[in-house]
Every structure is written in C-alpha cells, then in structure tokens.
Amino acid sequence: MTALAPLALALTDPALVARALERLPRQAPWRADAGFMDALRRLALASDFALATLATQPELLERLQAGGDALALPRPVLAPDLPEAWPRLLRRYRQAAATVLVWRGVVLGEPVEAILAGSTALAEDCLRLALAALEDAFRARYGEVRAADGRVQRLVVFAMGKLGGGELNFSSDIDLVYAYEQEGESDGARALQAQEYFARLGQQLARLLGETTADGFCHRVDLRLRPFGSAGRIAQSFAAIERYGWQEGRDWERYAWQKARPVAGDPAAGERLLEALRPFVYRRYLDYGALDGLRAMKARIAAEVARQDLADDIKRGPGGIREIEFLAQALQLIRGGREPALRVRGLLPALQALTAAGHVQPAVGAALAEAYRFLRRLENRLQMLGDAQTHALPVDPTARARLAAGLGYPDWTALADALAAQRALVSAEFAALLAPRRVAPAEGQLAAYWRALPEAADPQALATAGFTQVEALHRSLVDVARAPAVQALSASARARLDRLLPQLLQAAAASAQPDAVLQRLLPLLHTLLRRASYLALLDEQPAALRRLVDALAASALLGERVAAHPLLLDELLDVRVAGELPDPARMQAECRAAAQAEDPEARLHALNEVRQALSFRIALAFLDGRCGADCAAQRLAALAD
Q: Over 587-600, what HEC string results?
C-alpha cells in the first residue's frame, strides 16, 4: 500500500475520513491490520459511495482484506417465485461489485482499462440476470414467440455507446436497443404479437434495472438510440431496423451503430443483424462525407456546452472525451468500408488499428491514447465519489482536494494543469481533423465562369486559362451544369461541387495537357455527380485532386479506368499508394481476403475490385518512375496469376 499524499493526510485529520470509518463495525479483526486500515482511509478519501456500501454490507470488508479470488462476488439468484425480491438483490449486487471496482482502482492501482472492462462486465451480468428472470416469467404467462416457420424468437438486447465498446464508465446510463429477428405470435394461453410481447419485456427490463427504489438503482437504462428515438417502438424487428437505416438513418446513427454489440437474449441473431447493417455503417468507399455529419454534431454539442456553461465538463467540453471518440470514429467511418481491420468497437483498440494502418501517426496515436486514459480515469474518480453520473469538475474546495489527492497530485492546481495540457492536445488534433482540408474557394475567372453556367458563362474564360478547344469544352461543361444529377444534389453536395469544379478547372489548366486532362475529367464528373461521397473526398483532400489530375495528364487509360470504377479514387488517398509496391505474396493475400464471400458472384465482384486497385497502383508507380517497364510487367503478371 502506498502512503497517502500529504494533503490527503490533512483531510483525514480529524474529520472527513475518520467519520467515514466510524460507520464501519467497531469490533472487527481487520481493524488490527494497519495496512488494511491505511487502504480503507484511501478508499474513504476517494469514494463516499464505497464507504456507504461497506456500512450496509460489512461482509464485504473481509473479502477486500483477503483480496485475490475473494474479490469475485457470487451472482445473485433471482428465484422465479420471489419476483418482489429481484430489485433488491440486483441493486445490492451492483453496489457491492461497484465497490470492489473502486477498491481495485483506488487501492490496488489497476489501470483504467481494467476498471472500464469491469464496469462493462458488471452491467452485462445484471442485464443477463434480469432478462433471464423476466423471460421465464413471460414464458409462463404468455408462452414463447414463434415465427411463421415455428422457430422460437427471443429478444436481442444491443448495447450501444461505451457499453457496446466495452468501456463503460463507473456510474453511467446504459444505452440499449431492443430487437427481434422475425414477426410472430406467442404460443401461450394469452397470446401476444411479437412486437407487443418484446415491447412489454423490454419495458419491464428497463424498470427492473433502472427504477430508483429504497435500495437505489441498478443501472439507468436509456432507450433513445432506437429508430425514431423516443417516438419509435420500444422493440423492433430486424427488417424494420434495416429499413430505417437505409431510408431514415443519419450520420450520428451510423456512429451509434459502430459500437453496437448484442449482450443479452439471442446474441447469434444479433450478430446477423449487425452483419446486415454493416454496409449502412461502413460504406464501400472512402466516406469523407461523414466529416460533414461530424461537424454538425460537434456544432450542436458546442452550442449545448455554451448554453449550459459546460466548459468544465470533461466529456463534452473542449478537448474532452467525446472529441477523442469522434476523432477515432470519424476515421473509422471514412475508411472502415475498405479496411475491415478498422471495424473495432473500443476507443483504444480503434486508435491502435488506425495507427497500425498508417492513418494516425504513432506519436499522435500514443498521445491521444494517453489523454483518453487520463480523462477516463478522472471521469471515473468523479463518479466514484458519490456514484453520480457527472462529468463536471467540482467547485467545492474539499471535493477538489480529495480528487487531487486520490489521483496522486499535491494539490488541485497541479491536477488542473495536467488536465489542461491533455485537453489542449486533444483539441488541436480534433480541430485538425475537422478543419476542411480544401484550399480557399477559387475567386478567379474560372470560378465566375462555373457559377454563370449554363446560360451566362463566357467561354473566353477557358481560353484565358490556357485551354485551346474552347467551344467543345464549353459545350461539355454546359452539359454538366444542366445534368439532372446536378439539379438533384442536396444543398451541401451542391456547395461541394461549386467549390470543387473551379479547383478542377484550375488544376487541369495548370497541367502539361490542359485540354486532354479536362476531356478525361468530364466522364468522371458525371460519375461523381451520382456519388456525393467522392465529391467530398476530392473537396476534403486536395492531395487526391492533385494526384488525379497528374494521373489523367499522364494516361488516358487511367482516366477511363477511374471513370468506369470510381472506387479507384480511394487509391489516390491510400497511404500505400506512394510506397513500395506489394510483392506477389501480398497480392495473393489481398485476393484471398477478397474471395471470402459465400456467393460466387460477390466473390468475383470483390476480386475484380482488388484487381482494379492493384493494377491502378502499379500503373501509378510506373508513371512516377518507381517501377520500370519490366517491373510493371512482372507485377501485372503476378496479379493475373
């Protein structure tokens, strides 16, 4: 046991910690254990909640003193004939297990990842115990829900947010979504349709866990992440959720489903729904359009922070936990459709995957991971103090002193300085991600020319810029401006197009072959108009735009390939595109990975995408001199093999 910081000693003498320890049994063998008493003082300094639990469940003290396997508490038994006892049993179990978590974090010094995992496991235990008891009661009263083919249907409980990611904080709501695989009817004497059956079951589950009784609460349940939010049905079929995702789903819901994980009921069925929703969450292309959704979400949060004066909120405030989460999840959404290794739920695993894939610099990834651990540890200690769902720094001097001392800082100022440094780092990285990477909007003749299309544009602007086949190019650009796809663009996509087209025209004019590049761009433009995500890619990433123009200037064939297969635009931003070409073994591995689908047609489609991408990469390497003619021929032959 490490000694208390000097400030902590001052706090224990005479009132604060002494009063807390007086609530525990006076005549107990463990009071003679000086090391254990010192540990209890540290616990009392960090958590009023833990001392209150020990006062009502003193048998826990012997377990804490013994340590080791004794810290693993037996799960309560929810007897079918005693439903009135279930709330008390669950609440006392959760309080005892949560107190053990405080002990592990404060006294044993376990890393914050272990405490988050422990909080997650505790919530899952309570969910499964409660659901199993309620399912037995429903089965006795209403029977089991059966689909048209006679198969039994069970409720699927999806954990969202930090519970889904396996990183639940100490005193948090648990975000849940209820679903069931197929419609049907229960087979009992009092038959219910599947929707009503599972809605009732889900409501009772939320009440059993979340209602505040004389024994407190077990876990507060938030069901607002379901389709249509509070206005939506409590439990919905897989088909309804899939349909909602494709017809109504918004970017923030894609973020929410990134972390979704079936944790109770029928997890195998839940995995089938997640697989069906994967294309909704992770698009097949580089999805830079997700950044606009993230910007809108961040703007709403910033407005909320300003309105409610939440600058000292370490979750929602500047440089807080949510900014790290958004940063990692945005990069996952952008690239996860193309890179399955990025489809992980937890924040720290996501940072590791992004770093390993080259999308986050190692030093930045390590710094963000350290900031996340710091903030989550501080958040946990804030919540451990009184078992309250708070993210705000305390204003009370005593609470501040307790928090600083419990975390090993000499005073509040030292802790506040360390926090400020971590938040500044997070804010800088988050701003770098959200800052549009596009250049300043063009304001020259070409920009004015594009804005005047299709009726009033002066073709002379093209000639002045350096194009020679002015009339033909002008007619083609008029066709682009009049295209139905342009008229159908959303306001945000149209704004992107109006920023992007002048930049493309300027880049083409500055190339070695202005007319040829623009002629090769035009077929691609018609394709891009049908894929707003690719407009976003070129708008957000000037490097991709430059590489595209360079490739078109060097090769008409590459222009045709990109127009026919716009997924090749992703290659222009691949971190590997300017590096060493894959050897035959690596190409074979990529082809094998693409050929995992069960459907033969899907396998062939995936193989063709890999072939196009690899051959495009070889072509770019040939054009920029990294791979000579013999090298390119050998690589293409290996790819064909």
A: HHHHHHHHCCCCCH
The C-alpha atoms of residue 571 and residue 512 are separated, in whole angstroms, by: 23
Sign of CA dihedral 162, 165, 170, 174: positive
Pairing outcome for strands 174-180 and 221-222: parallel
Query: Taking each helix axis from N to C terminus, what angle separates 412-434 and 397-406, rounded to the nearest 10 degrees?
Result: 80
In three-state secondary structure terms, 180 is: strand
| Cα-to-chain-centroid distance, residue 8 | 38
d(CA 495, CA 613): 29
Strand partners, 235: 178
**Half-sphere exposure at residue 128, Cβ-oriented, CA atoms within 13 angstroms:** 13
CB 480 within 8 A of CB 486: yes
Does 267 sit behind a cis peptide bond, omega within 30 degrees of 0 on the bond before it?
Answer: no
Q: Provide the residue count of the chain.
A: 641
Instruction: Provide the whole-model pTM.
Output: 0.78
Contact status, residue 393 vs residue 311, Cβ threshold 8 Å = no
Are 247 and 215 contacting, i.e. CB atoms less than 8 angstroms apart?
no
Q: Model confidence over 350-366: pLDDT tens digits? A: 999 999 998 899 999 99
For residues 606, 607, 610, 611, the Cα torsion angle rounded to the nearest 10 degrees is -140
Closest by CA to 227, choosing from 194, 154, 178, is 178
* Phi/psi-derived region of residue 74, left when phi > 0, alpha when psi is between -120 and 50, beta in every other case: beta
Tokens 């710091």, residue located: 374
* Contact (CB, 8 A) for 448 and 461: yes
Instruction: Say what the pLDDT of residue 439 is.
Output: 47
- Quick check: 139 and 186 in contact, CB under 8 A? no
Count the neighbouring beta carbons within 10 Å of the beta carbon of residue 336. Answer: 24
The overall longest dimension of the chain from CA atoms, in Å, is 99
pLDDT digits (tens, 9 = 90+) for 8-56: 444 444 577 888 888 899 888 999 999 999 999 999 999 999 999 999 9
Measure Cα distances from 507 to 99, 436, 472, 514 in Å.
63, 19, 19, 8
Give me the DSSP letters along 27-49.
Answer: S-GGGG-HHHHHHHHHHHHH-HH
What's the helix, strand, coil split of the chain in %, to 5? 65, 5, 30
